[in-house]
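In the design runs reported in the main text, the only information available to the sequence generator was the tokenized backbone. The following block is the verbatim input for one such run; it is reproduced so that readers can re-run the procedure and compare outputs position by position.
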């Protein structure tokens, strides 16, 4: 067995973490022979609840879990990290303006970015989940100048999995028969779920999703809005936001970052745009199709973009630019 790695989950007393921690601790993400130390960060009023989570993790009696450290202190949580999964954020309260929400989150992710910069390993891989995920990720990245920008990613895998699942349900196959769907842009209702390059396995043969579905109106209409609005639909039905599926998506995202993507397959991930791919402006944290090898992601280049896609990709970039401008204002005034 190798040395344990240090993995942090923030928002550890929350509902996504409750579904996520077991998967990580039993080896679904870093492999069945990778021991780990789990660090759990939440805010001070949640320390009692967090102790309950610690007890349950202990009671799972998992061989890979060497130690659990629960804390409300960033200097403890961020020390020597190999992986940081930032789930905790300020939730939107009733009547709260988008601007106020952004401001509260800039404060959190500026502080956590600075803590990464100061205490974590320079090789740390950072996965931001807490919303607004793309802009929170950008805030953390900008606040951690000594860590490579490429080490920061944000979660759009839940949207990616939702898109796969909608196609699979429509074609009466399983999700693993569908590959290379893309989520472009922001993890918000402006995201663009795109299946123009996706393929599906039907009777042992790979065919384009558009040929298999044979309904362009659906693909350009209800399919897109169903994926965009899926989070709201889950809240309406469950009276709580997605947790099980979010935890699964975080496991998928982090496992791929750690071990790579399968040959011939790409996944969606929010990453730093250098301004050289698909006309997305430099400096946005935008979801692209990526492949991963040796713990390094690469944007899939050269996919053909038609006018319909172009419009949707630009609209979500515009929203991200607005969020970025607002966050920058708060970043400099904080
Ligand atoms: P919960 O409200 O159940 O849990 C959040 C936890 O974060 C709470 O325990 C809270 O005390 C803690 N927290 C707040 N501020 C903190 C800070 N500064 N440091 C450490 N912990 C802090 O929310 P949950 O359902 O678990 O969702 C967590 C976040 O994930 C939300 O922001 C949510 O919007 C976001 N999501 C993002 C998704 C994505 O695809 N990017 C999908 C799922 C989810 O909606």
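Verbatim output:
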């Amino acid at each position: 067995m190798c040395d344990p790695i240090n993995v942090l989950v923030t928002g550890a007393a929350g509902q996504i973490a409750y579904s996520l921690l077991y998967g990580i601790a039993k080896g679904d993400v870093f492999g069945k022979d990778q021991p780990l130390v789990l660090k759990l960060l939440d805010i001070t009023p949640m320390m009692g609840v967090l102790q309950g989570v610690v007890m349950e993790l202990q009671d799972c009696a998992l061989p890979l879990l060497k130690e659990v450290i629960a804390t409300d202190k960033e200097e403890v949580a961020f020390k020597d990290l190999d992986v940081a999964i930032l789930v905790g954020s300020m939730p939107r309260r009733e009547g709260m303006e988008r601007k106020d929400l952004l401001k509260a989150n800039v404060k959190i992710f500026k502080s956590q970015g600075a803590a990464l910069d100061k205490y974590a390993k320079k090789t740390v891989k950072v996965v931001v989940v807490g919303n607004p995920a793309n802009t929170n990720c950008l805030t953390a990245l900008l606040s951690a100048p000594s860590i490579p920008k490429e080490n920061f990613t944000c979660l759009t895998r839940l949207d990616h999995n939702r898109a796969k699942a909608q196609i699979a349900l429509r074609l009466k196959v399983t999700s693993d028969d569908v590959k290379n769907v893309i989520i472009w842009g922001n993890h918000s209702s402006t995201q663009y779920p795109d299946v123009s390059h996706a393929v599906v396995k039907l009777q042992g043969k790979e065919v384009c999703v558009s040929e298999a579905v044979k309904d362009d109106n659906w693909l350009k209409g209800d399919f897109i809005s169903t994926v965009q609005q899926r989070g709201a639909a889950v809240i309406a039905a469950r009276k709580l936001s997605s947790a099980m599926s979010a935890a699964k998506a975080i496991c998928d995202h982090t496992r791929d970052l750690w071990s790579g993507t399968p040959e011939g397959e790409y996944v969606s991930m929010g990453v730093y745009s250098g301004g050289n791919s698909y006309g997305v402006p430099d400096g946005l944290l935008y979801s692209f199709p990526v492949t991963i090898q040796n713990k390094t992601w690469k944007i899939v280049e050269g996919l053909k973009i038609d006018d319909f896609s172009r419009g949707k990709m630009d609209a979500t970039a515009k929203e991200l630019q607005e969020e970025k401008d607002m966050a920058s204002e708060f970043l400099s005034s904080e």
